[in-house]
Design brief:
Elements lengths: L12 E3 L8 E6 L3 E5 L8 E4 L7 E8 L4 E7 L6 E7 L4 E6 L7 E8 L2 E7 L10 E5 L4 E6 L7 E7 L2 E6 L4 E6 L4 E6 L9 E6 L2 E7 L5 E6 L19
Antiparallel strand pairs: 1-2, 2-3, 3-4, 5-6, 6-7, 7-8, 9-10, 10-11, 11-12, 13-14, 14-15, 15-16, 17-18, 18-19
Length: 243
């Protein structure tokens, strides 16, 4: 370890942390909820908020800068489905919704833009939808709209660049792009040669980067300029609003 560095150990597995300034927030398996670590205090990481009963496997975490919220998605390993959570570090309050997508889909991936959270579903069961994307109001704690991009496997990762939401699907199901302004699916792509299951997406300096497991259990990293991924004039399925 380099001089001046400090090692801190967290219980369980920590899942996809996305830190706002100064503080690191993680989702902790098994049933650890949301943990926080502030390196400026010298204190050990601690549980900032618990998730609802049964929501034992946090899967993704991101920071909602507009609302000042830690957004998390989780899976219920035994009962099916999952949950949405929004933790406010200022008030220490957490808002949750069990099965925000449906009773079978977990919340595998989360992303946020302009105060709206986007939830990516994944379904490990034989029946039911398995790649639904839901736009969620974290303040009102309710759905705004949803779209099923028709992937044959669940969503592995989400990322937002400009007006576009990028999704990578599991099990070599490929890439999809949603126009958040028109709420339309505008592009899909076959990435099966390099992305065969779980993956991650991130945006840096105007480029969308993706990493995925391959059949050789190694990581494949691709960088793409968003303008090269689809023709802006091509659109497909629209969104729905559920009651």
């Amino acid at each position: 370890m380099p001089p001046g560095c400090t090692r801190r150990c967290l219980r369980g597995w920590h899942r996809y942390h996305r830190p706002p300034p100064a503080v690191l927030y993680t989702g902790q398996y098994n049933s650890g909820g949301i943990y926080a670590y502030d390196p400026n205090t010298g204190q050990l990481p601690y549980q900032a908020a618990a998730l609802p009963a049964g929501q034992n496997r946090p899967l993704d975490v991101c920071w909602d800068a507009l609302n000042g919220l830690v957004i998390a998605g989780a899976q219920n390993d035994t009962g099916g489905g999952g949950c949405f959570a929004a933790y406010n570090p200022v008030t220490s309050q957490i808002t949750t919704k069990v099965n925000p997508i449906d009773s079978l889909q977990m919340v595998r991936a989360v992303a946020t833009k302009d105060g709206v959270a986007y939830l990516g579903g994944d379904n490990i069961y034989a029946d039911g939808s398995r790649s639904t994307v839901v736009a969620w109001d974290p303040i009102a704690n309710q759905e705004l709209w949803c779209l099923d991009p028709g992937q044959r496997a669940g969503v592995a990762a989400l990322a937002i660049h400009g007006r576009y939401l990028y999704g990578m699907s599991r099990r070599a199901a490929g890439l999809f792009v949603i126009d958040l302004d028109t709420r339309q699916l505008v592009h899909t792509a076959d990435l099966s040669s390099v992305c065969t299951d779980f993956g991650a997406l991130t945006v840096s300096r105007g480029i969308v980067y993706g990493a995925s497991l391959t059949q050789r259990s190694s990581a494949s990293i691709r960088r793409h300029s968003p303008s090269r991924w689809w023709s802006p004039g091509s659109t497909a399925a629209g969104t729905t609003a559920r009651t």
